[in-house]
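URGENT: need a sanity check before tomorrow's submission.

F., can you look over the Tetratricopeptide repeat protein record below? I want to be sure the sequence and structure line up before it goes out.
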Amino acid sequence: MDHGAENVISGTTHGPVVQAGQVNDIHFHHHAPAAPVIPRQLPPAPRLFAGRRRELADLDRWFAAEEALVAVVSGPGGVGKTSLALRWLHNARTRFPDGQLYVELGAHAPNGPATPSEVLEWFLLALGTPAADIPPELSRRQALFRTLTADRRLALLLDDAVSAAQVRPLLPTSPHSAVLITSRWRLSALAVDGARFVEVESFDEDASLELLERALGPRVTSEPDAARELAHLCGGLPIALSVVGARLSTHPRRTLSTEVGSLRTERLATLTLDDGVSVEAVLDLSYVDLPPQHAKVYRLCALHPGPSFGVEAAAAVAGEPAREVEPVLTDLVEKNLLAEIADARFRFHDLMRVHARTQAEWDSEAERDAASRRVVEWYLDRLAAADLVLRPTRHRVGPRYHRGAKPVGTARAALEWLETERGNLREACRVAADLGWDDLVWQFCEALWGFFLHARHYDDWFAMHDLGVPAAVREGNRAAEARLRAQLTYAYSGLGRFADAEPEGLRALEIAEQDGDRQAIAVALTELAGVAQGAGQLTVALDRLTRAREIRREIGTRRAEALCGRRIGEVLADLGRDGEAVAELTAAAEVMADLGDDVAQARCLRSLGAIHLRRGQHAQAAEHLESALDVLRRVGSPFYEAEVRLLLGEAVAGLGDPTAARVHYEAAHEFFAATGNPKASTTSARLADLDRP
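C-alpha cells as predicted:
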C-alpha cells in the first residue's frame, strides 16, 4: 500500500542506516569532525633559480624509490642550499596533501640554535595541537609528534641545522613524508637514520650564465664574453651572482664589460672561497654605490657586538638619530646588504659582515673604538634601565645608575628584552673587556644580577663575572670587586658548589670590612649565610643573617631588612622553629606588599607554603603557593616559578590530585634540567613517585 512516503539515502553514510516509513518534525543535526589542520609553512619558491638539475633529479629518484625521504642538503654559506630545497619541495608539493612544515634552526643564531623541544612545540601547534595539550618534556613531545605524523603525507624543511642530534627528534614516522635538512655541515651521522646526502657545490659556467640571464635578460646574450668573465669572477657562488645581477638590474645602462672591469680592478683578497676566487669584489660593487650616510651605517653596524640588532642599537653604533638610521637600514635590506630577520631587527649575511668590517678598516682606529664604545654604553644603559624595573630599591655601586637611568616598562617586558638581547649583552661585555674598558665590564655584571636571579643562565653568569672581577681589580674599584664576588657567592651556592662559593664570599667580606663599607658587609654576610645554610651549618647561617639585618636596620634600608627577615625565617624553619619562622616570613611579606614588590612577596609566600607542607597542611600550603604562582607567572620569572611549582606539586598530590601534581612537577623539571640546577633530581624523583602504583 502506498502511503506517499519514500526512503531515499543519498550522500555518504557512516555506520548503520535506520529507515522509517514516514517521519514528521524530527530534525537530525550532524556535525562532521573538524578537518585536520593543514600547515602551509614553506617560504616562497626562489624567484631566480638556475641549474641544480642533477640534484633535483636525485631527490625525485630517491623519493620515488623510498617515499619516506630524509635528505641532507649541505654546502658552504651562500651556495644556495635553501633555494635548492625550496625549489624541489614546491615542485613536489602535490605529493604532500597533508601540509608542509618549515623551521629555521639557527645554527648561527646569536642566542644559540633552536632546541628540538622548541621546534617540536612549534610543529605541534602548527598541526593543530592546543598549547595546553603540549607536554613539557622532549620525549613526550617527540612521541606526540610521531603519533600525529604517522599517517600524514608531509613535507618538512629543517633549515640551517647545526647537528644530527638537533634534527633527529624532528623526523616524522610517516612512510610517505619528505624531510629536507640544510646545513653547512654534512651531518653524516644521519646516515644511520637512512638519510640521503646532497652536496651543493658552486655553479659551473652554464648554470652561472643561466642565473645571470634570468636576472638580466638579453643583456647577457648581447655581451657573452663579459658574461662569462662575470661568472668566472663570481666563482660560481650564487650569492655573489645574485648581488651582481641585482646591481646591474638597477643600473640598466651599465654594461657587463664595465662591471667586469670594476671587478678586476677592485678585487681584494680578504674574502675568498676554497678555490681562491674572491667574493669581496662582488660585495664592494654594491658598497661603492651607497650614499655616504648609508655606507657609514653599513660599515659601523659590522662593529655591533652580536650578529643581530635593532634600530636603536644601529643608531648607537652609527652615532646618528634612530629616525635617520631606520630608513637607511631599510635601504640596505633592499640592496641585499642586510637581512631583516624580524620586525625592525636585522643581521648581516656572514660574508657581508666580514666585508663591512673590512671596509670599516678605512675608518681610523679612534673612530672604530668610538663606535664600539657608543653601542656598548647603549646596551649598558638599557640594561641598567631594565634592572631598575626588576630591582627598583636595590643599592647599586655602578655609576651608570647615578647618571639618570630610569626604569622603563613592566617586569615582564624587561625580562623579555633581557632574554632577547642576552647574547648581545654577553658580547658587549666581551668587547668592553677586549678594548680595556674595565669600568664598563664590571658594570655589566652588576646590572645583570636581577636578570640572572630570574632566569639562572649560569654559564653566562660565570663567564661574565670571570671578566668582571679582574676588571674591577685592575680598576682598583674595591666596592665593585666586593659586589661581584658576593654575586658569585650566590651563584655558586645556587648550584650547590659551596666550596667555590665560600672563598668568594669571604673575600667580599674582607674587602668590605677593610673599607668600612657597612652596606657591602651586610651583602657579604647575607650571601655567606646562604653558603652556611646550604652546608647544613644553620646556627652559623642564622648568626650571619642576624648581623646583616642589624646593619640593614642601622642603615635604614627597609626592603633589604625585610629580605634578611625572609632568609631568617627560612633558616628558622630548617631548625624546626616553625612558630618563629612563620612570624618572620609573615612580617617580611607585609613589608614587601607595602613596598609593592610582588616578586619578593611571592617568595615569602613560597616559604610559608613550604612550612605548611612540612606540617602536612596541604590545603594551607596550596593556598600560599598558588598565590605566589599567580604573581610569578604574571611577571614571567621562570626560576622562582619553578621553585613554587615543585612545592605546589607536592601540595596538590597530598590533596589527592596526581594529575595536577604531574603538571607542576613537569614544568619545574623542564626548567631545572635546562639550566643545570641540582633540583632537577628532586623533580625527577617526584615524577617517578607518581608513576609508582
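My own read: Residues 69 and 178 are 5 Å apart (CA to CA). The two ends are 66 Å apart (CA to CA). If you see anything odd, call me.
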